[in-house]
Amino acid sequence: MPGLGRTLVTGVIGSDTHIVGNRILTMALEEAGYKVVSLGALTPAGEFIAAAVETNADAILVSSLYGQGELDCRGFRELCIEAGLQDILIYVGGNLVVGKQPWEEVEQRFLAMGFDRAFPPGTRTEDVVAILAQDFTAREKVG
Questions:
Q1: pLDDT of 40-49, one tens digit each?
Q2: In angstroms, what CA-CA distances link 135 with 72, 91, 121?
Q3: pLDDT category, 85, cuts 50, 70, 90?
Q4: Torsion sign (Cα): 118, 121, 123, 125
Q5: Using CA of residue 94, residue 107, residue 127, residue 55, what is the dihedral sign?
Q6: Which positions are catalytic?
Q7: Contact, 121 vs 94, CB < 8 A?
């Protein structure tokens, strides 16, 4: 199991109440062997980071479906650094911006904000689980 021994923090950021996709992702991550701390909907950025510190998490996975993810996620990496989590893996996914925008541009904005990965709407849970395992393996090789 790729996730054995690893802890993840998941949740839906900001004022977003769309919890179904996040719940499905959480179930897939648990099935892959990860211990998941699920914060649910309506979660401020600071609560993700506090939960990651408290649980010594290996990654934070942020969901947003209501189009305000770009606003809600500003400064997320900086908050992680301030909390001593400069090396934590952070992913974001969902309908992250208002309106139709080319995904490549949206992804680049979130990567520039310090997210390690950004996933478009409709990303399959098995793809996230596989990429997460690859990223953890790559980090182990680096040291």
A1: 999 999 999 9
A2: 24, 11, 20
A3: very high
A4: positive
A5: negative
A6: 16, 18
A7: yes
